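Thread title: Can someone regenerate the structure for this chain?

I was given the following input by a collaborator and told the matching structure tokens would be attached. They weren't. Posting the sequence so someone can regenerate them.
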Amino acid sequence: MGEAERARVVDFARRVRGTWRPASITLILMGGLAAAFGAGPAAILPAFVLAVAVGWYDRADFGDVARPEWVVLAVLAVGQLAIGAFIALSDRYRLDALDLFILPVVAACLIFPRRLAYAAAAWSVLVMAGVAFAIDPSLVLDDPPILILPLGVMLCVALPAAMVRELEIASRDTASIDTLTGALNRGALESRITELDGEVTAAMASRVGVIMADLDHFKAVNDELGHDAGDGVLREVVQRIRAVLGPLTPVYRVGGEEFAVLMAGADVAQVTVVAERLLEAVHAAPIGGRDITMSFGVAAGTLDREAVTDVLERADEALYLAKRAGRDQVMPAAMRLVDDRHEAEPAVGSDQGQLQAVDGDGGERAGRAHTALEFEHDRGNWLVRGDFERDHIREHAAALNRTHHGALGFVALALLASIPWLGWQLMVPALFAVPLYHLAERRIRGARRPEYLLAGAWLLVQLSIFAGSLLVAEPQPYMLVLFAPMLIGMTAVFPTRGVLLLSVVTLGLTSAAGALARPDLVTTYPGVIAPHVLVVAWIALMSGVAGRASIEHRVRAVVDPLTGVLTRAALRSRLEEVAHESQVPGARVSVIAFDIDDFKALNDAHGHAVGDEVLRATGSALRAQLHALEWAFRLGGDEFLVVVPCGEREAFALAEQIRAALTRVRVREIAITGSFGVAESTPGARFDFEGMSRRADTALYEAKRAGRNCVAISPRPVITTGVPLSHVGQSPLKRYSI
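Best answer:
Regenerated them for you:
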């Protein structure tokens, strides 16, 4: 297992840690219920052993374990042994609890890579069959569905559980990568800082070298050639940096044209040599027909004497010394002496901090993400909080659709094989409700309220299973395992409130089906349904943790942690919705492009820490002016884009509100102004976002030429029948200086 996979195991283990304590209590309660009212007193011992193993897992410090996957595998192995012992020690209805072997399979598929997860599932199939034939072979031969149904469900849940894991990994990758350049983003850098701060016991990791880099005069490139050309420069620079660093040393895009490199185990001399090579690589050839230069600041430190953020600040100070010394050079930072009796003298601007390490719960970043999503909460309901979570449901449900086809096939085969003993009634869900559920998954992307469509189709399947269990001539407790397959994907797709509701409904249907199908049995031995209830609760718990992790990663991917507005990555999904809405007759869409006036000069004069404060204040002022269905995006650096469902006059009024709000902001007595360009979609024409954004960009630069701190409107192209759009003339830009 590679380091990336090992880190993922540790991350998931830490995420579920808070659930283990209630899980261990649940195990003891369920074991006690089964022992007192069905399985016999001896069965409580394995449940207690498993609860102890879970408690030990809860206290384990995975950061100090060289092979954390072995810790997880050990707990899962103990779990299988405890389940086998529970079944063997039970006095009655022992094989009805075979579905408990599903518990470690779900955990393995959610935690480990597909190959290892499927190996664990195959091993569990053998263990389940072996335990069944070892304990009561005559019962298995007389009533094969007692083994066939839990085997089918085990294989069924393994496939979507593995897919849920891959979706969570994809969400994590999206949250860590800058979509424009392919470099790692600021959030990934903060995570790496946290990791390095926790590695001070390792000899190599206790020393870290930092390179801070900034493109020289990049604002002029954007102003003269446009943002598209500027984006091309950024992409090419990252490619050249990567070619020098190689595959094992990542580059982070900290801001617009600002980059960082962290080199574990490196000293000042080593990072200086690397920075000189990066300087030469940027010089190697013109980019976009223009000579590009870059300034570098380098620093190194030992983590037992100073934090990574301190080393970053020193490298940042050195970068600005390089800027003031004429740019296009590498500047090493001055050494900072640290007396053990006193704290180091804080760096310039360190009270605000250019970069902040965050805790495992998301810290400041999660708070900003919540702020950015407030606009959508007024469109929420009792299942989701708003459109942000609807997007998550659409994407994950569509991705799980094909997996569900194959997974539910295992259950269908198990039901077909069980017809001679149980009858055809349990096939009702497979014949009617499940195809409708698959149809709902295929239509999910175009649904305005995907939560209702998916939850309704899911409820139809669960109710069909409930009805089928009541129609069976001789219902058996082991049939209750059929409520589990439909839960694994749903709890990973829905947010927390949806997971709770779906879990409660499933637990209620499971208990009611057992009570109504065999009231005599449940009345005499109520503990007989405890194992099946535990399976449902466990699946909801584990897949729900993975689903919440995906949502958290999605928040990091689409919400800019510095300004609190949406990111360039979020723009793509929003454009699909805008394009769909723009087809409605009379619909109007406008975009507002703006940037902060003289931001590059401000950054050069005051440093990144102050620049970050300005961006943070700009994001706050921008969010305060927006309402539902008005979306703001940070494209990079100090460049922002607002998409609004209105015409150019209304968009101009909004741009003026934002402009006025910026003029009221003061950051360390620094005044903030912005220049704005507005463009409206062309009525009757196909929605063309690229054309709109180019026209808004042109209007923005017209506002710059008009003296800044003003709004300019770009006219719409006039569409004439039979005349190609590219040949149609445009009137001069309209300016509204304030």
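The chain has three domains: 3-175+381-557, 186-356, 566-736.
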